[in-house]
Amino acid sequence: MKMLPLMVNTQEFGAVVIGHDDSARRKLQALLRVNAQVAVASEQPFCHKLRELVHQHQLSEVSVQEALQHKDRFPLVVIAEGDLEWQREQAIKLKAEGRLVNVAEHAELSNATLAYLIDRHPVMISVASTGEAPVLTRILKARLEAWIPQSYGRLSHLVAGWGDRVKTLFPNKKHRERFWSQQLQGAAGELMIAGREQQAEQLLENNLEVIEADQLQGEVYLVGAGPGDPELLTLRAVRLIQQADVVLYDRLVAPEIVDLCRSDAERIYVGKARSDHAVPQGEINQLLVDLALQGKRVLRLKGGDPFIFGRGGEEIDKLSQNKIPFQVVPGITAAAGCAAYAGIPLTHRDYAQSVRFVTGHLKDGTTNLPWAELASSAQTVVFYMGLVGLPEIARQLVAHGRAGDTPVALIQQGTTRNQRNIVATLDTIVEHIADKKLEPPTLIIVGEVVSLHEKLNWFDPEQAGGSHGFWARQGEESE
Ligand code: SAH
Fold first, then answer.
1. Which of 1.10.10.10, 1.20.1600.10, 3.40.50.720, 2.40.340.10 is the CATH number of 10-114?
2. Ligand 1, atom 18: nearest CA belongs to which residue?
3. Residue 473, exposed/middle/buried by CB under 10 A (0-12, 13-18, 19+)?
4. Class of the CATH domain delimited by 217-332
5. Fewer CB within 10 Å, N or C, the chain?
6. Which CATH number fits the domain 335-478, given the four candidates 3.90.1150.10, 3.30.950.10, 3.30.420.40, 3.60.9.10?
7. How does DSSP classify residue 363?
8. Which of 346, 443, 444, 445 to mutate to test the pocket of ligand 1 (most atoms within 8 A of CB)?
9. What is the mean pLDDT of residues 312-334?
């Protein structure tokens, strides 16, 4: 069946719903949501909820005969009662008169469908199915609703205000469309969606000036990719991932997340492992600047949250020095992700009133961490990059007074199908992992809250759909 998605002005188009029960009520609600001029008719008394709706909206009631006969008043007829034979007969007659007919649950008798409307004025999106799978339509509608920012329509203000100048600059329609496509999906569009209208206008002004000087400025998105499971990405992260021209990612970004990039986007691996510094930090910072200066939308994807042991601050510092527009999208940091997927609440009224995120990356086998503070009880301490230093960490904590039987969890590749949880105590953890081949990244959680793991553990990596885990590479991970 081929359908034409057609938008109809509901103020100038009359509809009638024939029915008395819940099915009629649902149809009526769909029409009322778009302020349709709608009347109701039935051979039977209305059910309670339908009656309420009719009363609340003061809808006019007509007889079924009137509904069927008044061609000019009701060009759209929704039939939600009667037996199949009667419905078929009426549908044939109505269609022969050139009217639109929708028979509830009988797409084969209908020549019209009531679509869901996603309203992002002035953009309207309709989602409909040919009738076989209304649930799919509902699911997709809900996804799109969540996906497309409420303020998406604001982008039209941007176009309206600058139309003439852009027309002069790009007399060729194709070039003009390309310009708008870049702007609306770029930093100016982002600012507009975020409600920062003045800055958006200012940026557009700058961009126009630059183009007038024959050069287009790019921008950088510093995006937290979370701990692994792609479903833990924020909506904003996904949107930016899908619009970037080039992506720089490292080892702690799950491959499934890099796969969300546009297929024509350039991918640059700047991976890092303790023994494998693919691209030094200074070069990454410079690369971001260079690519943005070429007019590209550059995505810098970082594992977890970019501002937690991520050196995100250094990267954007360089951008700011070079006056390159950027934005930062937070991600779920490894501590939050691993703890949730291991059933370990990081704080708990009975066990821990605070939590600390600490780097366990030791220089020359030692570290100047504030051991006495970390050893005090009733707090949770999470060590990032702690695997190599674990013997020293456990030793120091006990030496500074933390009980040797304090529970410790070591979580490998948290939130992925490769997740593994090893639970022991400060006294026994080193011995526990001695014969185990662990695959980085790993996170260490120390504190009484770890004892809750046994009861609250819910995540089954074997059943998980999200990520298969991280790229296999030699060596312990580092910042
Ligand atoms: N910015 C990141 C942390 C980067 S430091 C964040 O916010 O999560 C790298 C360390 O993070 C690794 O050594 C490891 O300790 C930890 N880590 C990151 N992802 C992890 C994961 N999926 N499972 C376990 N640990 C992880």
1. 3.40.50.720
2. 334
3. middle
4. alpha beta
5. N
6. 3.30.950.10
7. B
8. 443
9. 93
